[in-house]
Amino acid sequence: MSISLSKGQKVDLTKTNPGLKKVLVCLGWDANKYDGGADFDPDATVFLLGENGRVTNPTEDIVFYNNLKHVSGGVIHSGDERTGGAEGDDEVITVDFAKVPANIAKIDFVVTIFEAELRKQNFGQMSNSYARIVDADTGVEIARYDLGEDFSTETGVLVGQLYRNGKDWKFNAIGSGYNGGLASFCKDYGIDAQ
Questions:
Q1: Rounded Cα gap, residues 113 and 159, in angstroms
Q2: What secondary structure letter does DSSP report for 57?
Q3: Which residue from 39, 133, 145, 149 puts its CA 20 to 30 A from 98's CA?
Q4: Taking the CA of residue 10 as centre, how many other CA atoms within 13 Å lie in the half-sphere pointing to its CB?
Q5: Which fold has domain 3-189?
Q6: Is-contact 125 35, C-beta < 8 A?
Q7: CB-based contacts of 179: which residues, under 8 Å, 6+ apart?
Q8: Residue spans of alpha helices (H) in 18-95
Q9: Structure confidence by residue, pLDDT tens digits, 77-90
Q10: Contact at 8 Å (CB) between 2 and 142?
Q11: The pTM is what?
């Protein structure tokens, strides 16, 4: 049975699910009707981080629409869903715990809106945003985090984080809004996005 998470709640993944080797982090959203003339293009990005909360390799430790697979094979992105109009999950990230390098302590999942400032778009114009953690081998949903409608002007959201806890993996439902798009996340994580 899936666990429904609240903002800030953490859940054990591998400890409470013995044999769990690989998860799908499924992200979804819907764009509200508006008359701005441009499609919404939310993008999921994954940052693989060291203990200090920053990437250990600025060119390799980011997985997104221009780099769909981490060099280790431990994190793979399904590709860019450009309109947010798909039924169900919009973008899916596969995480193979055995392949994630030992120096990676945390894996952050963020969603930003492509060209949000130019298109005058923000997460206040979106609804039904969520993250689902699914056992990749069985297809069973382990946990779900519905983000709610807490964002009005933000152009990016730190949805959640997978992190090591000893030899186990946990998920933290974060749901923090940001402005400045992908570039601001890159800067915070130690990547020069110029």
A1: 13
A2: S
A3: 145
A4: 12
A5: Lipoxygenase-1 (2.60.60)
A6: no
A7: 153, 154, 155, 156
A8: none
A9: 998 665 545 568 89
A10: yes
A11: 0.92
